Amino acid sequence: MESSTRDEPATTLVDAADRSFVESLAPGAEREAVIASLVRYRAPDVLRPGDALPEVTVRRADDLASVELAGLVRGRPLLLVFGSFT
């Protein structure tokens, strides 16, 4: 991590859900590595529950047809799951 982020408190770098865990770690390389990973991969400021849907085209799993993400919602909640199902 850069020296500017090393001097900032962990509470300003990580999502609120991770703060107590990060603060429980002793200062040192392990804590810095955890903070760097959380900041890089959690991206809490990108999209949160309740945010407007981005304009995205996705493929249906059954026939791989392209569909606008907003067209799947139609006023209902939408849950996106990313992962490998093999």
Q: Which short descriptors sum up this protein?
A:
single chain; 86 residues; two-stranded antiparallel ribbon; 38% helix; disordered N terminus
Q: Please mark out the parts with pLDDT under 50 across 5 or more consecutive residues, or reply none.
A: 1-7
The SS-based structural class is mainly alpha
Strands, total number: 2
Question: H/E series, N to C?
Answer: HHHHEEH
Give a written overview of the molecule.
- This protein has 86 residues and is mainly α.
- The chain has a domain at 3-42.
- 38% of the residues lie in helices and 7% in strands.
- It contains 5 helices and 2 strands; from the N terminus they run ααααββα.
- A two-stranded antiparallel ribbon has the order 1-2.
- A hairpin with a 6-residue loop joins strand 1 (57-59) and strand 2 (66-68).
- The longest helix is centred in the middle third of the chain and has 14 residues, at 29-42.
- It is elongated.
- The model is unreliable at 1-7 (pLDDT under 50).
